[in-house]
Design goal:
The chain is of the alpha/beta class. It is built from five helices and eight strands; from the N terminus they run E-E-H-E-E-E-H-E-H-E-E-H-H. Strand 5, helix 2 and strand 6 form a beta-alpha-beta unit. Helix 3 crosses helix 4. The longest helix is centred in the middle third of the chain and has 14 residues. The N and C termini lie far apart (about 35 Å).
Length: about 230
């Protein structure tokens, strides 16, 4: 099966230009897979993901997922990366994640209109990004990392006090079209350098700076957890 890599409980189906999750992935691997990487495809739907009930990590970077994104209940999922998709409605996404991924601790949304930073929109600045982080933490208070940056105690305190008032307004339709049309100019958010891409590698890599992304065809946005140090 071209493009398929399986190592232990890790399943990788990267860069195959598929528009939907192949049925055989769930049938053959869904019962044991704990990590699934579907980055660099053309996914618009996650139909078929319900076969992967034991997932702990899900990598969906560089796809075409939008505001109609629907995830099945994934009670064990702690890491989700949706970098470089077409998500604009932040509040809907966060409410959905709070419902279907109760164990989520690591989330990355870089490269989506819903994540306001200079990488997507030059009109956004650091204060816009801070407000976004407070709002996300208000909705998902159990997060430990957001966009590859560790959540600080100060951010938690700000989110508790002001997070509910930091809602990021969804752009108008014309703005969305402009963002999608210019998506080819955006970097691809794949924060693992080439030397750390092995499927069997469990060690995350972080750089310095506000936004973290390196390399090409990596396994998605990885985080360093305490048990990996």
């Amino acid at each position: 099966m071209a493009g398929l890599m399986v190592s232990g409980t890790q399943v990788s189906y990267v860069g195959q230009n598929c528009r939907e999750i192949p049925e055989y992935l769930g049938r053959d691997f869904g019962h044991f897979a704990k990590r699934l990487d579907l980055s660099f495809n053309h996914l618009r739907s996650l139909e078929g993901l319900s076969a992967f009930r034991s997932l702990e990590e899900l990598i969906l970077d560089n796809n075409l997922l939008g505001d109609d994104l629907v995830l099945p209940g994934l009670p064990h999922l702690h890491t989700l990366t949706l970098n470089k998709n077409q998500i604009t409605d932040l509040e809907y996404l966060l409410d959905h994640l709070a419902e279907v991924t109760p164990a989520l601790e690591y989330l990355s949304l870089l490269g989506n209109v819903a994540c306001p930073n200079e990488l997507v929109n030059l009109e956004k600045d650091e204060e816009d990004y801070k407000r976004y982080r407070y709002f996300v933490l208000h909705k998902l208070p159990n997060l430990k990392f957001l966009d590859a940056q560790k959540v600080t105690r100060q951010e938690r305190e700000e989110a508790l006090v002001r997070g509910a008032f930091m809602k990021v307004v969804k752009p108008k339709a014309s703005s969305e079209e402009e963002e999608v049309a210019s998506s080819e100019d955006h970097p691809q958010y794949t924060p693992l350098p080439s030397g750390s891409r092995e499927l069997t590698s469990h060690r995350g890599v972080l750089g310095k700076g506000r936004y973290f992304y390196y390399g090409r065809n990596s396994e998605g946005n990885r985080f360093i957890r305490d048990d990996q140090l």
